[in-house]
């Protein structure tokens, strides 16, 4: 067989251009990939056409993408998902699901077609959001947390219901014995994969680790085999392979194999799926779109769009009421969950392949995905500014607020004490006296070597959202930051580098995404000394215009000489550690010592 | 279309089991993968059969593998390849090529078939060797260096000749204008890809870096697009796509994009090709093998085997004569180059697909690959022990012998002075006095911060085979070792960790493959002091039985108290830095200070 290389090349280039443009405009790349498929594919220009090669790669891409999506979901997070998130997920799924189902039936569609459309309008996209949340400065709000949890639960729900429908569709009859068989097989699948995931895989992981296997490629191959094995199990159970790959991802997350390797391989699976194969799927999905739908089925298109948007937004808001967070927040969450994404297109594509929906319905679903995803930023901007104006934008209480400080010198204790009112703070120091002092102040201190994984785990690094390296040894600070970032995965990392350091330098922080605490090289020892001798004053100053932490510090030092900005306080009164790269806005306060 | 998931799963599992068994036995995994394909495929058990899915994945796998093989070849190394390596490569390719060609013609084969068989018997496998060289303790011999260079050159040669043959085969006529056209297109291909590789890609790389793109997945996608683009260019020029991918690999090696990212992505391409897609190719290649050949064409099989083995071994030896290294070394190099591997199977598979050879000839080539590869360790053991007994096993002079020492304290200077007779030694120290002292002793010293890439590059870290971190600050030592390993790629890294270090620990060395210098935690400061005050004695002791460096040190300390083993000297009188994980053999000497 001949590879259709030119076609593959063009598909990859189209995906890349489309995806890059979309992300540049603040949208998920899938939007650009789909659009590229529509524009360059048979629907419009006809430059691209389906080939066997892209078909195979697209299918493998979907499997690997589902594996990756599964890997991204943290069981523990799901377990801890707030009641609010659960309510939003259920409402946001169920209401458009029911409305969508009856809408299609009302237009004379088949029952199976109606069910697939129903799932498609019910799904919520995961990938769409994080970028938008950053742009709208929502990351630390309760809404963001509800959105995350809601999307995760709703995707999981959608996949399970989808698999159930597929399995009944295959059975094709509604005899009781048949239904029992189908249900039994599905249950068996969850039991078997559950047992494999909970007992066998960790056992296998431990055995391999004991046997001293550290070859990354070996683990990569094993993970692939497990993913495809689970996918095959799902098919054997009459479910769809993507559910199997997804569940394999849930289990392969990180606990099975060595933590560092798992993190690395997560990235490899991301590269392969999101950087190579999945875009092929989305471009080729665009091929199946037809514009005929605007002539033949415009009413249905509009109805499904309405059902998708209104059902999602008001369904979410309705079910969100019992959370007690207010209907306005419910509507905001609804607008945030209104995007569709990868999972919807995957499900629609499968339905098309299996003949449950035709090209026109498929096109409607694609246009619906594009429209709803494209409008998320717009609607979400409206609703959040509405909340903001009413002062109802509540900050999250469930984001990881834990602060882990390395080094328990006077400066660390000063910071810890200030934060400990609102954040769970832990300290690590190898010096017993320092730790004892921290404990006497009512702070939690672990005595140990922060460059050992065990110490950070003992200090509950997994629960920490912030890691501060504040010893007098810049190199220890950098090495600990590496561990905290790469092995433990703490998201925000602030590192102290002394100006006299002839070793560690700021360049070393970039690969791990850490930033310099105090927004400049600082000698903690000097400030330790001042704090120890109570030779300092605390001053606060309000920010009058938007400015970066680095520039503000320059201005401040210009005026005041040698100062140390320790915190900035946003308009809600929340204290943040002052660090390089922070953006200060009017109304923020900076707390510094002198 | 439906993915043949179960089949894919079985192929992956078969490849994995076959590959693991082979590597466990000391053979390249491709041998196990081919055999698995023969055993489980149509030839024997018939459990596996060709599917569209595996066909597509195998083809993509071959492209990505050729890309990876290209990435592994260092232009500069090729340029520096010794005359001996070039001679071995030419002889080892040409002689079996000519013999193979006439053998097939003699048996009534077609001209094209004969040409393809000729290339197949001429090829030398790259992957087969490194492991065997380690097992036979040949890594530091001249033979190893000749083998490496020889295989690289011979593979490159084979690919180019192969592409040329393909392009003439496609033309299908021998009119002069046709031949000129074909040649012109091929030359144009090399010119265009050369210009792209030398000018456009580095320009693109710099632009992306300036624009601040650090997203690894983006670079991954771009590299894929470049590889497939080059492959398509090759096809347009009438050459084969694998040559394009290979050449893309040559250029994408490391100079185009950010060094750290390139290193990471090389690994990702390795994971995808060697850990996923290429094994699918080798298993499915095994499907095409037929055992009929033993009945119908046994003579031809034996003749080709003989041509392959004898032509390769004696051809290499013959052309090797002008190197002046002796005919016995030539024969040893010949036995080392006698393996066939990935490239041969790829070329044979293409010939089969294009109809130039039939299943029987293909089977002969596969059996030949298996036989020659499987016998490399056997023959090479014979020939090297023959050389060893005669005392003709010459150590390599062209391996990277440079030693880069971080820290120019008395202990560093002591080590540098001892090594500087045979190795080019450089030191790095941030302290100007230390550096001046080193310079006064006639040593090269760079004053600067070793945690900056520039400093290591200025100290010619690229030329170094050994990196020794020997400052009193264990954390600086570890961070510098990371840089030397991950960014610069120095192969042997020895790090000093002080026993009092409450930070850096030995666990941190494992992920970068570094080992502890002196085979124990050591305080350089203490020994600096003794050396400074000439308060030490130098003692040598001969090893009587095989022992690890760690255990020997334990014995030695038990007898002698506090000692510092600095070097071990092998039987050829070469000094090695004493480090954790070294294996000491009878006759070695350990030099320690007390």
Automatic annotation (TrEMBL), chains A, B:
Domain RCK N-terminal: 403-518
Topology class, membrane: Multi-pass membrane protein
Primary site of residence: membrane
A single GO cellular-component term on record: membrane
Location within or outside the cell: Membrane
Domain of life: Bacteria
Record keywords, A-Z: Antiport, Ion transport, Membrane, Sodium, Sodium transport, Transmembrane, Transmembrane helix, Transport
Domain Cation/H+ exchanger transmembrane: 13-382
InterPro entries: Cation/H_exchanger_TM, Na+/solute_symporter_sf, NAD(P)-bd_dom_sf, RCK_N
GO terms, biological process: potassium ion transport; proton transmembrane transport; sodium ion transport
GO molecular function: antiporter activity
Listed transmembrane segments: 6-23, 85-107, 113-134, 146-167, 179-201, 213-231, 268-287, 299-321, 341-357, 363-382
Keyword match Acyltransferase: no
Name of this chain's protein: Kef-type K+ transport system, membrane component KefB
Organism: Sinomicrobium oceani
